[in-house]
Amino acid sequence: MSGKRAGESRGWLFVILVAIACVAAGYVGRLGIDSLIHGQVPFVTFYPAVMAASLIAGIRSGILAVVLSTPLAISAFDAYPIMTTLIWLVLATVVAVGCGLAHELRARLTQERDELERAKQKLELVVREQAHRAKNTFAILNALAQQSAHGAHNVEEFRDRLIARIRALSSAYSLMSVTDGDAPVELGELVLLALAPFRDTYGERLCVTGGPPVDLAPSAAIPIALCLHELATNAVKYGALSSAAGAVTVVWGEQTPGAYILRWAEAGGPRVDSPRANGFGSRLINAALNGMPGGGAILKFAPEGVTCELTFSKL
Predict the structure, then answer these.
(1) Which residues have a Cβ under 8 Å from the Cβ of 179 and sit 6 or more positions away?
(2) What is the SS3 assignment for 242?
């Protein structure tokens, strides 16, 4: 409220100063030609003063210039005839209103032009962002197709691998599509959506303990969703969810202010042996968050169960 009042005060100060400056210029100009017109037409130079005040600062400044000019011209140039003064007041007011409206129209057109320019810049930014996202999406799909084909023994196996990974990719996009493209993604919603197909099958054995609310940048949602899908897929094939006694816990929390960690922990499944070579899932998990501010992944193959720690920064 105080800021609004201060703005109004500055606006009125500008109106008054412009009116005074224009009237002063009109007065000086009238003095300059007084020897030529010998006291006749006392208001002649004040018309341009009113016009200038209205065009510069609007109707209020023009009307104020009329008010200031009238007694000044009457006292300085002996403009006593009532009819001359009335004609001046009527014509000067018309000039003030007309030029003031022109000033407001110009200001409105300038504002609309600036808004259109900002809208154009925002649209161009959105188009570039969508093109960039589409390019990244096709690159991800290409990598998923290549890696899904690697090691597949038949078309059906390749198809199943690819469909499952595309569904994981779609989970992140479907969550982002319900909000603004630039809006943050809530981690809890992302985790539940990415793991929904597995939780429907394994129920309480896939326990999402959760953590504090965390807003993620949209660029972080896709890698995290893919990581969770790969972890769950491997748990079903080889890990804790491949046996009736196994279970998985997903929890996250704040490590340091603004820095978070999501922990995937398996227990109760078959004994885990460290792989001799990293498969696509391991490579994806290890590389997914690298290059992002505060991002990283630590995948451990302990005998009692696989654990994975994903680190990331809050938006």
Answers:
(1) 185
(2) helix
Domain encompassing residue 173: 150-313
Q: pTM here? A: 0.49
Number of structural domains in the chain = 2
A 10 A CB-CB count for 211 gives 18
- Taking the C-alpha atoms of residue 258 and residue 261, their distance in angstroms, rounded to an integer, is 10
The reported pLDDT for the residue numbered 262 is 92
Residue 248's pLDDT is what?
94
Smallest CA-to-CA distance from 191 within 173, 219, 171 is with 171
CB proximity list for 297: less than 8 A, separation 6 or greater: 227, 285, 286, 287, 288, 289, 290, 308, 309, 310, 311
- Residue 100 to residue 223: CA distance in whole angstroms: 58
pLDDT in tens, 53-72: 999 988 899 899 998 988 88
Q: Residues 249-258: pLDDT tens digits?
A: 999 998 888 8
- Asked if residue 136 belongs to a domain, the reply is no
Residue 138 lies in a domain: no
Residue 141 belongs to some domain of the structure: no
- What are the Cα distances from residue 10, in Å, to 58, 99, 100, 111? 14, 22, 19, 20
